[in-house]
Amino acid sequence: MSLMVLGTSSHVGKSTLVAGICRVLKNRGITNAPFKSQNMSLNSWVTADGAEIGIAQAVQAHAAGVEPSADMNPVLLKPKGESVCQIVLLGRPYQDVQIPDYYCETDSLLQEAVAAYRRLEGAYGEIIVEGAGGAAEVNLYDRDIANIQLARALRLPILLVADIERGGVFAQVYGTISLLPEDIRPLVAGIIVNKFRGDPALFAGGIRILEELTAVPVLGVLPFAETGIPSEDSLSIADKMTSGNPIRIAVVRLPRIANFTDFELLERCAAVVYVRPGESLDGYDCIIIPGTKNTLEDLAVLRSSGAADEICRRRKDGVPVIGICGGFQMLGDHLIDAGFESGEPVEVEGLGLLRTITTFSSYQKTTRQVRCRSGDVGPILSRIGDVEGYEIHMGETDIGDSLPAFDETGAVSGDGLVFGTYLHGLFMLPPVVDALLSFLSERRGLEYTGVTPAGDPYDRLASILEEHLDMDRITRICIPGHHA
């Protein structure tokens, strides 16, 4: 039968819940896979065959114990700014569209999505489907291929997730169910209240009221928990807390920041602050320029805000500067666009911290998984060794006679304190975090003990679900007749 998880709004925890259900089913010996027909996110992942999908579906696949594939997220929307969005279809760039024009594509995209679902169903049996945003966006019902139109096509039982942390949980749940189309409303098989702070038992009266209002069972109340699972989209940046660690790292919060999940392990080991262009970079031990969906436009923001000059000034002070993907491109001398990145031919100066030239001469992307080794250059890279990650980028970078940062990608300055790479996922690797933080700690005369192993985040998440949800009942909803 499979199962569909919808939310009362964005950021209620659908992605994490789907990952948890996938792991619970795997632990119970049930083969399963995740699916999200349409995802809008700049945090993406590259599969083994070079397809680009939302990072949430890759995370969910790992939780299920299966290999991520393009069918798990057939439509990925990547906002580019000024109401333009890139459609990635079955893992490959399809076209750039104005947001209003996107809805002319939804009928055909729904067909692609349903076909992808059927292929997954044939391969894995039980599929845990994630909706997008809020399920009761009434004005979108005729073209909502992530929620209503998909639910209509698949006719799966629905779990509705609400976020109690932000308040208004009764209105969220009752309003959403009441506004669902009459043919979809009976599919709602259970309610889950998420992000409860304190003792969930204190919400017992609330459970009774929700069930009386909706005639739908509440299948559990999940506590607010830090799971260690990568974030899906930029809404999560606002939730990030800065630790009191004395080592302070600035990640430049570019307007079109992409794949900020690159730094979530680093965030647990140092005081990582997402600094907006124009804010002071004084007092930071290291500066990282992350990936972006539009390198040239975000580089222009760095210049107009004064951040470009600030970064160069801090480099002269001896502060390490690291660029990832688009950030790597910005570190170079020149960026030359034939019209594929910015929409018109243009050549601009980079920050000039690396002797590289990046050229955008094609709409196609490089998407691949990479295993390589760091160069034996300077006090950071020389400590790393073997790494793995993935590349997602337009443009090609000529490093000229610069030293390579890694044997597959990137460039590094002669003193090793400035380097750039196309590798995403680098700072999710403990050896890379250890290399950077051990160097920064030595500079400050501080002791550094290394990354503490955190264990399997998916099993931790599954344990939370088993403790706080009626997972036996959810399993039976997913697989009628199954004896948990």
Automatic annotation (TrEMBL):
<dbReference type="InterPro" id="IPR011698">
    <property type="entry name" value="GATase_3"/>
</dbReference>
<keyword id="KW-0169">Cobalamin biosynthesis</keyword>
<feature type="active site" description="Nucleophile">
    <location>
        <position position="325"/>
    </location>
</feature>
<dbReference type="GO" id="GO:0009236">
    <property type="term" value="P:cobalamin biosynthetic process"/>
</dbReference>
<keyword id="KW-0315">Glutamine amidotransferase</keyword>
<dbReference type="Pfam" id="PF07685">
    <property type="entry name" value="GATase_3"/>
</dbReference>
<protein>
    <recommendedName>
        <fullName>Probable cobyric acid synthase</fullName>
    </recommendedName>
</protein>
<comment type="similarity">
    <text>Belongs to the CobB/CobQ family. CobQ subfamily.</text>
</comment>
<dbReference type="GO" id="GO:0003824">
    <property type="term" value="F:catalytic activity"/>
</dbReference>
<comment type="pathway">
    <text>Cofactor biosynthesis; adenosylcobalamin biosynthesis.</text>
</comment>
<comment type="function">
    <text>Catalyzes amidations at positions B, D, E, and G on adenosylcobyrinic A,C-diamide. NH(2) groups are provided by glutamine, and one molecule of ATP is hydrogenolyzed for each amidation.</text>
</comment>
<feature type="domain" description="CobB/CobQ-like glutamine amidotransferase">
    <location>
        <begin position="248"/>
        <end position="427"/>
    </location>
</feature>
<dbReference type="InterPro" id="IPR033949">
    <property type="entry name" value="CobQ_GATase1"/>
</dbReference>
<dbReference type="InterPro" id="IPR029062">
    <property type="entry name" value="Class_I_gatase-like"/>
</dbReference>
<dbReference type="InterPro" id="IPR004459">
    <property type="entry name" value="CobQ_synth"/>
</dbReference>
<dbReference type="InterPro" id="IPR027417">
    <property type="entry name" value="P-loop_NTPase"/>
</dbReference>
<feature type="active site">
    <location>
        <position position="424"/>
    </location>
</feature>
<dbReference type="GO" id="GO:0015420">
    <property type="term" value="F:ABC-type vitamin B12 transporter activity"/>
</dbReference>
<dbReference type="InterPro" id="IPR047045">
    <property type="entry name" value="CobQ_N"/>
</dbReference>
<dbReference type="Pfam" id="PF01656">
    <property type="entry name" value="CbiA"/>
</dbReference>
<dbReference type="InterPro" id="IPR002586">
    <property type="entry name" value="CobQ/CobB/MinD/ParA_Nub-bd_dom"/>
</dbReference>
<feature type="domain" description="CobQ/CobB/MinD/ParA nucleotide binding">
    <location>
        <begin position="3"/>
        <end position="226"/>
    </location>
</feature>
